[in-house]
Write a structure and sequence with these properties.
442 residues; alpha/beta; Carbamate kinase; eight-stranded mixed β-sheet; four-stranded antiparallel β-sheet; 13 helices; 34% helix; 24% strand; globular; disordered N terminus
């Protein structure tokens, strides 16, 4: 096997070691598992060593969560991790069996057997070390390695842990970093990273490349194909991600770090950096408005300390100008819908000490974000966004920006149409409708 770089595509690696990750929709049933096994075997036949991280089949994790809630209103975190980690173990064993039936040796490993060491936080553990000794041995002996995603092991407690949302993506990227893989292929039911969610914007276009910086913003603002933790890990450890489809042999989207991206630009490969890379949408947020806050120094700090103690993750914040007659202002902020009840409870409990008048909770909002590294050097990006929404008659409730992103909050009912209109306004529409093979985005 020879390592090299394609002359036509400087980011494309002729690989010797591939890490592949398959999501729940890719291994939803026996036929799907056999299809995935064939893809893995084809890579092995081509001469590459292959390590695979696999998610639980289809909706298995949701079904296990439902079972847990039926036997215990608040399941014990340790036991819930034991339960949920079983889903990936089923997938890994079935996939190894399917590969064996095709005449190739495959060995399956749990997260702990694979050396995925985490902290002790059940349900949202962070990876602290990866010691893939058994995986390296299996590869050296010619086996295809299958690893249960989403799970790890804490050395101090000696308990099984799970990594939370996007855990299998993070597992795959962490394995790629530890094994010094040439590429980490993240497989789902769409053909790569699109300029928008093709289920919402049918004429979204697949991107050949996207920078890690842009991908972080897209993932943080609703794009589902890659999870932000996995992209962050890849950026930190220099892992090349290739997002592609289980249901197609087409090349997907490469997520390039700034060095690779700059090298590609210097090649003059006919690629001019686009102003806007994509439009992301998020219906998973709620808005809380704290009404009648005394407009004196320190009150905002009090409010957000209370919110932080509740465990809520605040996104956008807006404070209006205080009314001269009352000396009070309103503060609005967005947060994940699941975090809102705890934040409301915590704030209500401190209403007397903070001195605000009331709370308003709104879970019928949507966030639309425009992301692009080219926004740094081009004017008029925000004007295009606001003009498109104005023509559509959509009211903007909140605005937030970063160097390469503009986000707005609108009514949930307006979000899908707003995304389509804004996508068109930036000239991102493709000539044909995008193909979605299975329908979940994972």
């Amino acid at each position: 096997m020879v390592l090299g770089v394609s002359a036509a595509h400087p980011w494309r690696i002729i690989v010797a070691l591939i890490v592949q990750k398959y999501g729940g929709s890719s291994v939803a049933d026996a036929e799907s598992i056999k299809r995935v096994a064939k893809r893995i075997v084809d890579a092995r036949r081509a001469g590459d060593d292959v390590v695979v991280a696999v998610s639980a089949m289809g909706d298995t994790t949701d079904e296990l969560l439902d079972l847990a809630s039926q036997v215990a209103p608040i399941p014990a975190p340790r036991e819930l991790d034991m339960l949920l980690s079983s889903g990936e173990r089923i997938s890994m064993a079935l996939l190894a069996m399917a590969i064996h039936s095709m005449g190739f040796e495959a060995r399956s490993f749990t997260g702990s057997q694979a050396g995925m060491i985490t902290d002790a936080t059940h349900g949202a553990a962070r990876i602290v070390d990866v010691t893939p000794v058994r995986l390296r041995e299996a590869l050296d002996e010619g086996a295809i390695v299958i690893v249960a995603g989403f799970q790890g092991f804490n050395r101090d407690t000696r308990d099984i842990t799970t990594l939370g949302r996007g855990g299998s993506d993070t597992t795959a990227v962490a394995l790629a970093a530890a094994l010094k893989a040439d590429v980490c292929e993240i497989y789902s039911d769409v053909d790569g990273i699109f300029t928008a969610d093709p289920r919402i914007v049918p004429r979204a276009r697949k991107l050949n490349t996207v920078t890690t910086e842009e991908m972080l913003e897209l993932a943080a603002n609703g794009a589902k194909v890659l999870y932000i933790r996995a992209v962050e890990y890849a950026r930190r450890h220099g892992v090349l991600i290739h997002a592609r489809s289980t249901f197609s042999s087409s090349e997907g989207t490469y997520v390039l770090d700034e060095t690779r991206h700059a090298a590609l630009q210097q090649q003059g490969d006919g690629m001019e950096e686009p102003i806007v890379a994509g439009v992301a949408t998020d219906l998973g947020q709620a808005k809380i408005t704290v009404i009648g806050v005394p407009d004196v120094p320190g009150k905002a700090a009090e409010i957000f300390k209370i919110v932080a103690k509740s465990g809520a993750n605040v996104d956008m914040i807006v404070q209006n100008v205080s009314a001269a007659a009352t000396g009070r202002a309103d503060i609005s902020f967005t947060l994940p819908k699941a975090d809102a009840p705890l934040a409301l409870k915590a704030l209500s409990g401190e209403q007397g000490s903070v001195g605000f008048e009331s709370l308003v909770h709104d879970d019928q909002i949507g966030k639309l974000s425009v992301v692009g590294a080219g926004m740094r050097t081009h004017s008029g990006v925000s004007a295009t966004l606001f003009e498109a929404l104005s023509v559509l008659g959509v009211n903007i409730e909140m605005i937030s920006t970063s160097e390469i992103r503009i986000s707005v909050v609108v009514r949930a009912d307006d979000l899908a149409e707003a995304a389509r209109v804004v996508h068109s306004a930036y000239g991102l529409d493709g000539e044909t409708e995008a193909t979605v093979h299975a329908g979940t985005g994972r």
